[in-house]
Amino acid sequence: MTIVVYSSHTGSTQKYAQTFADKVGYACYSVKDEYDRNDEIIYFGWLRGPSIVDLNLIDRKKLIAVVSVSIEKDDALFRKVKEIEKIGVPFYNLRGWIDRKKVGFFPKILFIFLAVKYKLKGLDDYTGPMYDAMLNGGSFYDESGLDPIIEFVRSR
Fold first, then answer.
1. Which of 8, 13, 56, 133 lies at a 20 to 30 A Cα distance from 102?
2. Positions in the chain short of pLDDT 70
3. pTM
4. Predicted local confidence at residue 107, as pLDDT
5. What pLDDT is stored for residue 80 in this prediction?
6. DSSP state of 99
7. Per-residue pLDDT, 49
8. Residues with Cβ < 8 Å from 22, sequence gap 6 or more?
């Protein structure tokens, strides 16, 4: 059997994981939940730097796909994540949201630092919305990003 397991900080990864699970008819569990360790896993995790949070808690032999969620859309970053995390299964990336009420002091400081960096370099169509999200919160959630993952599952 295949299941979905996720780790979420502000809720966007959980929402993607649950929506995906509902669409394909899989059970969905937080990485903290009890689930059958013999099941195949599609893992949804949020990015912290070039690492996927809690991916290290998943048995790599059970992974059939990995999905990262962040506000980024930088392919170079995702290639780096795939290399650092040694991901040998299909790897997908979705854009989530920043809920400033749910992030701690240090992530807020990091967001301010990054926002200033973007501002100093000059804002464009990509960095402008990220600048706003880092300072005020914001969403890049797009359920259509699940379509390639659904296609992968249905083609197995």
1. 56
2. none
3. 0.93
4. 87
5. 96
6. -
7. 86
8. 28
Cα 115 from Cα 118, distance rounded (Å):
5
Of 39, 94, 43, the C-alpha closest to 72 is 94
Q: Give me 6's structure tokens.
A: 């996720």
Query: Of 17, 106, 12, whose CA–CA distance to 58 is shortest?
Result: 17
User: Whole-angstrom Cα distance, residue 135 to residue 42?
Assistant: 32
Say if residues 47 and 94 touch (Cβ distance below 8 Å): no
Cα distance between residue 104 and residue 151, in whole Å? 36
For the chain, which residues make up each domain, given as ranges? 2-96+140-155, 98-139
Task: Reply yes or no on domain 2-96+140-155 having CATH 3.40.50.360.
Answer: yes
Q: Looking at residue 100, what DSSP letter applies?
A: T
How far is C-alpha 154 from the chain's CA centre?
21
Which token pair is 15? Answer: 């929402």
Which DSSP state fits 96?
A: -
pLDDT in tens, 17-35: 999 999 999 999 999 999 9
- Checking DSSP bridges between strand 2-7 and strand 40-48, what pairing results, if any? parallel
pLDDT for position 146: 98
Under 8 Å between Cβ of 17 and 23: no
- The torsion angles phi and psi of 11, rounded to 5 degrees, stand at 110, -20
